[in-house]
Write a structure and sequence with these properties.
Elements (H helix, E strand, L loop, with lengths): L1 E2 L4 H17 L2 H8 E4 L2 E4 L2 E4 L6 E6 L3 H12 L5 E7 L9 E6 L6 H15 L6 E6 L3 H4 L9 H14 L3 H9 L8 H4 L4 E7 L22 H10 L8 H12 L16 E7 L1 H14 L3 E9 L3 H18 L7 E7 L13 H12 L6 E7 L11 E5 L2 H7 L4 H6 L3 H7 L3 E3 L9 E7 L1
Parallel strand pairs: 5-6, 5-8, 6-7, 8-9, 9-10, 11-12
Antiparallel strand pairs: 1-15, 2-3, 3-4, 12-16, 13-14, 13-16, 14-15
């Protein structure tokens, strides 16, 4: 792990913090904490499932954490598992014993993802009421399961997803649209099978809404076609999405296309959901590490949303309050927030929300001694880069200027990555195999 900060104490603390957080939300350990088998009895939360009663036991999954989750389920199920199929992001795959692994595009879906989604749909449609289907969902599942609705193409979904990604739409809003362009999302996977369905979910969504995580393929969907249209209009992309997408959504609003399954539907009487990990676990672990290091932790929120630049200004204000007035905590302290910020992309640079947040915060804390601001993506890949995020301090802007680098220009061009890489202030973990949103830290030593 590479943590781009010069000061020894800060580097040591942050390295320990990141390592501990990733262990706390490790998908394999999360599965093992929530699912155990004794003989033929599989216990998952309140579910007690006698595996001898099922003709077939199948595992499917999608997301950045699909591989370690599937490996854990293989070990737990043993001989009772017949087969499985998971779809994960490129670079996140690996060997398994009985489960087929496919890698596909994320965050923009690709042809391999569509092929995987079609295979998965065919598999679940073949199951009967005598079968057990275990569904493993984690961050990234929505993009990795592109099964376009009838009349739509993968290119239509790719174009729409790209426009939403650049618009600043929240993950909840993006998934509301995705559900209504899909044959799997918004409870439609559950509706496609007669099997008993048990979902184990590693949440990457603010508030842990089951209908939003992975676009809720096994959860009821309260959103409507009308909501999807409203979101596209609100972000100014309604007239930019393909005409086929507009036609499909308008048909849905008129009732000519079937809605996604709603809360109260009989479909969900044979479906149960188990949340096995979330951002709260990451935040709590970060706080414990700080306490053990003699640094006072203060948890601000686990629901930080909004523009990265706005959050950066808030963190800058908090930093000045701590340094000048000892509020809301006295140094040494670490203010901790969990969540997922957004970036409205206006430039053509390279970066991600955590890096953009950190670089914007660098301007706010300029000149403040022993103050560090961190943006950290728990999946290890912040935007289309190899960095998990970045650490900045009160000297970042000055160091950049001495190298002829302009922080304001980098931010206006959404080009945080090259500047932070040049300053060696990136956080590099590699793909972590998990995803429970981001951590945003203000460390004052």
């Amino acid at each position: 792990m590479q943590v781009g900060v010069r000061q020894t104490r800060a580097r040591r603390l942050l390295t320990r913090l990141f390592t501990s957080v990733l262990q706390a939300v490790d998908p394999r350990e999360a599965i093992e904490r929530h699912a155990q088998r004794r003989g033929s009895i599989l216990s998952i939360g309140s579910d007690r499932l006698d595996l001898r009663r099922y003709r077939r036991v199948i595992v499917i999954g999608a997301g950045k954490a699909a591989l370690p989750m599937a490996r854990a389920m293989e070990d737990i199920l043993g001989r009772y598992l017949e087969t499985g199929l998971i779809i994960t992001k490129y670079g996140h795959g690996g060997p398994t014993r009985k489960t087929r692994v496919m890698e596909a595009g994320h965050p923009v879906p690709d042809q391999t993802g569509e092929e995987g989604a079609n295979r998965l749909l065919h598999l679940v449609q073949s199951l009967t009421s005598d079968d057990l289907l275990l569904v493993l969902l984690s961050g990234g599942a929505s993009a990795l399961l592109p099964a376009p609705a009838v009349g739509l193409s993968l290119k239509d979904k790719q174009k729409t997803t790209s426009l939403l990604l650049r618009s600043g739409a929240t993950i909840h809003e993006m998934n509301t649209v995705r559900k209504h362009l899909s044959r799997l999302k918004g409870g439609q996977l559950a509706a496609s099978t007669k099997a008993r369905v048990v979902s184990l979910i590693l949440s990457d969504v603010i508030g842990d809404d089951l209908g939003t995580i992975g676009s809720g393929p096994t959860a009821p969907d309260a959103a409507t076609y009308r909501d999807a249209i409203r979101i596209l209009q609100a972000y100014g992309v309604w007239n930019k999405v393909p005409a086929s997408v507009r036609r499909h959504l308008l048909k849905g609003r008129r009732g000519s296309v079937k809605e996604t399954p709603k809360p109260g539907s009989a479909i969900f009487r044979r479906v149960t959901h188990h949340l096995i990990g979330n951002n709260r676990a990451a935040v709590d672990t970060a706080a414990k590490v700080c306490s053990a290091e003699g640094v006072t932790p203060l948890v601000l929120t686990t629901e930080l949303v909004g523009e990265a630049s706005t959050a950066a200004r808030w963190f800058g204000s908090l930093a000045r309050q701590v340094v000048l007035r000892g509020r809301p905590a006295k140094r040494p302290c670490c203010l901790i927030a969990g969540g997922e910020l957004t970036v409205t992309v206006r430039g053509k640079g390279t970066g991600g929300r955590a890096q953009e947040f950190a670089l914007a915060a660098a301007k706010e804390i300029r000149g403040l001694p022993n103050v560090y601001v961190v943006g950290f993506g728990t999946d290890g890949t912040d935007g289309p880069t190899d960095a998990a995020g970045a650490v900045v301090d009160g000297e970042t802007v000055t160091r950049a200027s001495k190298r002829g680098l302009n922080v304001s220009r980098a931010l206006s061009g959404n080009n945080a990555y090259p500047l932070l890489k040049s300053l060696k202030q990136l956080i590099i973990t590699g793909p972590t195999g998990t995803n429970v949103n981001d951590l945003y830290l203000l460390l004052v030593l």
